[in-house]
Amino acid sequence: MTLMRCVFMGTPPYAAISLARLLDFDGCTIAAVVTRPDAPAGRGKKLQPSAVKTLALKHNLEVLEPRSAKDPAFAERLAKIAPDLGVVVAYGRILPNSVLEIPRHGCINAHGSILPALRGAAPIERAMLQGLDETGVTIIRINERMDAGDVMLEQTIPIGLRITGGQLRERMADMSAELLVQVITQLNNGTATFTPQNDALATPAPPLTKQDMRIDWTADAHAIDRQIRAFLPSPAAFTFLGGKRLKILAAHVIDESMLQLGNPTDSQAAAHAGPATDIAQSHGEIIDAGEAGLLVTCGEGLLRITRVQPEGKKQMAAADFVRGYGKHLPHRFEG
User: Fold this and answer.
1) Which of 161, 191, 213, 217 suits a disulfide with 283, CB 3.0-4.6 Å?
2) Is residue 185 classed as helix, strand or coil in its secondary structure?
C-alpha cells in the first residue's frame, strides 16, 4: 500500500485517539501535526500542551501551533511540507481555503454526528440534550462552509439510556479513528466516494455555554437527567442551593406513579410530597433528603440526586451532603 503523506490537525484527547491510530496505520505517514497553542489549565492555570501535541512530541513529530489558521506563515510552512492529505479531528479552528487547497487530496474531517444533522462545535452534547436515540461519526471532505462538505463515510451509534457524555465521546473517538483509516485506504486505492449533503436537512450544534449546563428545574425530569449525563464527567451540570453552586454528578428519574402506590424506596418522599398532582405544581423543591439522596420536583416528574460536588469541595454522595447540612438544608434549588 502506498504511504499517503498526511498532516494531522487536532487538539483534545478525543483527537489524540485518531492520531494514535494513524501512527500505527501502514497506509499513511504523519508528516506534521497542527494543534492549538498551549493553554492555561488546572488550579494553577499553568500553560499545558494539548493531548495531541503531547502525543506528537512523544513520536518526534513536527508540531505547528499557529495562533490563527489564516496566518500566511502557517500556509507557507504547510506548502513546504507538501502533504497529500489533511486530517482534521476536533482541531478547534476553521480552515481557510488557503490551507484547504494545499494537500493534493484536500482535507478530511471526522465529525461527531450523522451530517447534515448537528453541524457545529458541540454535536455530541447536543445529541444527548435533544434526546436523540442515535448519533454517529461522519467523514467529510472539508469545504469553506462549516461541516457542509461531501460525505465520504458514516457510521451510527446508539445513545444508551444511561450513557454519559464522556462514555459516548470515548466510543465515538474510537469510531472516528477507524473510519479515518477506512477513508484513507479508499483514497489510496481510488475507491473513495463523495456524496453532497442535503443542506435543507441541516441542524445546528452551536458551542456550549454555561447556561447550557445550568439546570432549569421547570424542565421535565427526563430532560434534566439527559442534561446531567451529557456533561459528565466534566464540566458537569450545576444548580444553586443556598446561594452556592452545586454540581450534580449522578441522578435518575423517579416514576411519580410509584410514589402514589407507596414504593418502599420512596415512602418517606411520598409522605412529604402528598399526591402526585401536588408535586406537579412545583419545581426545584426538595421533597425528600436522606440516605437515598435528594428527591427533587421538576417541571414534570421527579429526579433523585445521588452524587454531588459542592462549590469548593470534593465530590461526595448526596447522602453525605445532606448530613453536612443537617436540619438547615434549604428546601428548594435556585433555577
Assistant:
1) 217
2) helix
pLDDT tens digits for range 285-304: 999 999 999 999 999 999 99
Cα separation, 178 vs 175, whole angstroms: 5
Cell matching residue 294: 435528594
The domain made up of 210-328 is a member of CATH 3.10.25.10:
yes
pLDDT grade, residue 44 (50/70/90)? confident
What grid cell was written down for 39?
A: 493553554
Where do the DSSP E strands lie in the chain? Answer: 4-10, 28-34, 39-41, 46-48, 63-64, 85-89, 107-111, 134-141, 150-158, 237-241, 244-254, 286-290, 293-297, 302-310, 316-317
What pTM did the predictor assign?
0.90
For the chain, domain boundaries: 4-201, 210-328
Give all strands (DSSP E) within 73-170, no chain letters: 85-89, 107-111, 134-141, 150-158
Q: Bridge-partner residues for 39, per DSSP?
A: 48
Model confidence at 138: pLDDT above 70: yes
For helices 51-58 and 13-23, the axis angle rounded to 10 degrees is: 30
Residue 207, pLDDT > 50, answer: yes
Q: What is the spatial distance between Cα 31 and Cα 20, in angstroms, rounded to a whole number?
A: 14
Which residues are registered as beta bridge partners of 47? 40
Q: Do residues 283 and 299 touch, judged by C-beta distance below 8 A?
A: yes
CATH C-level class of 4-201: alpha beta
